[in-house]
Write a structure and sequence with these properties.
Elements lengths: L3 E3 L17 E3 L5 E6 L3 E6 L4 E5 L15 E6 L6 E6 L3 E6 L4 E5 L14 E6 L6 E6 L3 E6 L4 E5 L14 E6 L12 E6 L3 E6 L4 E5 L18 E2 L6 E6 L3 E6 L4 E5 L16 E2 L6 E6 L3 E6 L4 E5 L19 E2 L6 E6 L3 E6 L4 E5 L14 E7 L5 E2 L1 E10 L2 E10 L7 E6 L6 E8 L7 E2 L3 E4 L2 E4 L3 E2 L5 E7 L3 E9 L11 E10 L2
Parallel strand pairs: 1-41, 31-34
Antiparallel strand pairs: 2-34, 3-4, 4-5, 5-6, 7-8, 8-9, 9-10, 11-12, 12-13, 13-14, 15-16, 16-17, 17-18, 19-20, 20-21, 21-22, 23-24, 24-25, 25-26, 27-28, 28-29, 29-30, 32-33, 33-42, 34-41, 35-40, 35-42, 36-41, 37-38, 39-40
């Protein structure tokens, strides 16, 4: 018989001794598919299509309807599902959904959210007039989108000509980028990258084109002159990937070599006087992916190891144990089988092949997402605030007249805003049963208890009661072939603690009558 699920959400806490019942299942942690860093925040895409953010929130970067109060652990962005990619600007974010629409939120004074206004948005809104989008990128205060027909669109700040529409006028809704140079060459764009004030487009023929600010040599021509339209970056051919940041740009060639130009020069000094055209980064080969950061660049070799180089002028350490390096590429310790990398202005991100997310660098605004504001000079693992599971503490069982009674005490930690703890149970084959869950919120915290059952495809709310001492409890009947699950969640974004255990006392009663 196919099991139909009985959704049963509860908040519980009590003191008894037990351990997990054999047929109690725990919810699996979802994995990270994409990540990107802003100035002082981070955004990540989960395997289930939801989007998560953490760090600074003065301008609604977290997308949860709030401002000012940031988070040092992941918080789910409201209203975005079925996402396939994300991008972070300095203080705004983009999400690309599977239907080809783009959604944005955060700081919007220059129209970088793209909803036709300059109103800061604390929850996602749809970018106007865009569909069939296949790639997105976010600069400091502007945004880019590539459509399936090869057209390129931009919106937001344009004081440096970063929108590529032939003007320096800010745009609160997307305008088409002029993807034709002065000689009449029309680009067939296959990839895009947005630096803070300059952009890159990768042509299908493997050439790279740039437009926008050239204050740090981002255009790559070897001079600081600012072109009036997009220009081809010299010294580059057979390029397969590009990336850009505050000062410098990177290109990955098909032979696995990495090329760099802009503010982080070959002497690895931030803002150095040398403005070279693209040069080959020494010591790197067999590279599969690249990421340009504010002060640090990353590359992943084909063996899954990560290498870093750049400058620590921004206070952002490259991780080599406890050392800081301002020399050519060095291997980042503590990572293996890395599948994707990304950077913020002052921090770095890596996703391993199993979907685990790691971060390191500066953390004053909680942008690393590890529940602290401590800087990290080595990668730390970050868990998205998806449903976690209770751990078994103790269990007891008794039989009376053919009725089985099992009692279990579980514990867990609601260690960050929005996190849920969850468990589930189903009666043995041929049995039906009843589940009763009880809990008391930890001192100084308030956890909500909700409960529902699924009967014949309908969600039926179950009344949850509370005793005078604060104990919340609920009971659900479990027919044969159904399952029950329960969960605990904080009442507000402040109701969490990485140090206080949440105890859930569960009674399972079942028989075959």
């Amino acid at each position: 018989m196919v099991k139909r699920s009985l959704r049963f959400m509860v908040i519980v806490c009590l003191v008894v001794g037990l351990v997990s019942v054999s047929n109690v299942a725990a919810a699996a942690e979802k994995t990270t598919q994409r990540a990107d860093g802003g100035a002082f925040h981070t955004i990540a895409l989960s395997s289930d299509g939801t989007v998560w953010a953490w760090g600074e929130n003065w301008n609604g970067q977290l997308g949860n309807g709030s401002m000012d109060i940031g988070s040092n652990a992941p918080v789910q962005v409201d209203g975005v599902t079925d996402a396939v990619d994300v991008a972070a600007g300095a203080a705004h974010n983009l999400a690309l959904k599977s239907d080809g629409t783009v959604w944005a939120w955060g700081l919007n004074y220059a129209g970088q959210v793209g909803d036709g206004t300059t109103t800061t948005r604390t929850t996602p809104v749809q970018v106007q007039g865009l569909d069939s989008v296949v790639a997105i990128a976010a600069g400091a205060v502007h945004s880019l989108a590539l459509k399936s027909d090869g057209t390129l669109w931009a919106w937001g700040a344009n004081d440096q000509g970063q929108l590529g529409d032939g003007t320096t006028t800010n745009r609160a809704a997307p305008v088409q980028v002029i993807t034709q140079d002065s000689a009449g060459h029309a680009l067939d764009v296959v990839a895009i990258a947005a630096g803070d004030y300059a952009n890159l487009a990768l042509d299908r023929d493997g050439t790279v084109w740039a437009w926008g600010s050239n204050d740090n040599g981002q255009i790559g021509t070897g001079s600081l002159g600012k072109p009036s339209n997009l220009v081809q970056v010299p010294n580059l051919a057979s390029v397969v990937a590009v990336d850009a940041s505050m000062f410098q740009c990177l290109a990955l060639a098909s032979d696995g070599t990495v090329w760099e130009w802009g503010g982080l020069q070959s002497d690895y000094e931030w803002g150095g006087d040398r403005i070279d055209p693209p040069f080959k980064v020494q010591g790197l080969d067999s590279v599969g992916s690249i990421a340009a950061g504010g002060y640090i660049n990353l590359a992943v070799k084909d063996d899954g190891n990560v290498w870093a180089w750049g400058s620590s002028e921004g206070g952002q350490p490259i991780k080599l144990g406890d050392e800081l390096r301002t020399e050519p590429p060095v291997q980042v310790r503590g990572l293996r089988s890395v599948a994707a990398i990304a950077t913020g202005d002052y921090h770095n991100l890596a996703i391993e092949s199993d979907g685990t997310l790691w971060s390191w660098g500066l953390n004053g605004q909680g942008q690393l997402g590890d529940g602290t504001t401590a800087d990290r000079n080595a990668p730390v693992r970050i868990a998205l605030n998806q449903t976690g599971s209770f751990q078994l503490s103790d269990t007891k069982s008794a039989s009376n007249g053919g009725v089985m009674n099992e009692y279990a005490l579980y514990y867990g930690y609601v260690s960050s805003p929005g996190q849920e703890l969850s468990g589930s149970w189903s009666p043995p084959a041929g049995f039906h049963g009843t589940v009763t869950v009880s809990m008391v919120s930890p001192e100084g915290k308030m956890y909500d208890l909700s409960m529902e059952t699924a009967v014949d495809g309908r969600q039926v709310p179950i009344t949850v009661k509370k005793l005078p001492d604060g104990t919340a409890y609920g009971t659900a009947e479990i027919p044969e072939g159904y399952a029950a699950s329960w969960s605990v969640k904080g009442h507000t974004a402040q109701d969490y603690s990485p140090n206080q255990k949440v105890f859930v006392y569960v009674r399972f009663q079942y028989d075959n009558r």
